[in-house]
Amino acid sequence: MATLTGAGISAESGVPTFRGPGGLWRNFRPEDLATPEAFARNPNLVWEWYDWRRSLIAKAEPNAGHRALAELESRKAGKFWLITQNVDGLHDRAGNRRIVKLHGDIWTVCCVGCGAEKRNVQVPLAPLPPRCECGGMLRPGVVWFGEMLPAKALEQAYAIAQRAEVFLVLGTSSVVYPAAALPRIAFDHGARVIEINLEPTELSSLAHISLRGKVGELLPQILTGAR
Ligand code: BJW
Ligand code: ZN
Which of 27, 37, 94, 180 has the fewest CB atoms within 10 Å of its CB? Predict the structure, then answer.
């Protein structure tokens, strides 16, 4: 059993999604903030945005949806994998350990000079942009548009999707690739694909079951029913 999560699962913790009503891309252009070119052009602007998001996330707590997935991992004892596009770390904080992070982690920073990667949970970050001991500029440890996903994580995610008997797709618009291809891979390898989303998505017509509603409300109900 496996799941792919997206920004929708953290919405109930007060973390803004990217698309849809109240989504980040309503007020900010991805080309200005979430590409390597944007960072090269204006690292301070990009860091201000990430610093603001880090401060929002630092105040957020895992919600009932995150906790249900932690419970699922403990119930399935070594047979449950969580693949996430989220960078907020709320799945870790809820207690999941078998996590594959496709788009990195907002609580890590990478040096554009020496390549060093480390955890950094300082909020707010000052001065901006933060610097490495080597003097090089640090960047957020996340995957921007046009960048490759971490090879090991992607390989692991494909393998998990190919083996899963049940594949839950929770709170993602299913438009960003290659993550959006995973449910189709699971489907093609015989998995039952179950989606939970507030709205219909690109995946809804393929999924065996597509539920409309909040992950934090529906997932705990499903788990209670499956006891
Ligand atoms: C609820 C809810 C509640 C709300 N309960 N539901 C193949 C085809 C077409 C394009 C491409 C392709 N392959 C690659 C591309 C290019 C690109 C891409 O996919 N573009 C598309 C937008 C067209 N992909 C890439 O560039 C990726 N790299 C790559 O493929 O490298 C190789 C390559 C490069 C160039 C060319 C070709 C190949 C990298 C993608 C990196 C994405 N990065 C971001 C930012 C991460 C860092 C950060 O956080 O700042 O990742 S963008 C943003 O989107 C973030 C998310 O992880 C990602 C997905 O969003 P998600 O999670 O689905 O959130 P939303 O907001 O879209 O949806 C929320 C959903 O929840 C909604 O549906 C709501 O209804 C729902 N919801 N509340 C249930 N309570
Ligand atoms: Zn360095």
Answer: 27
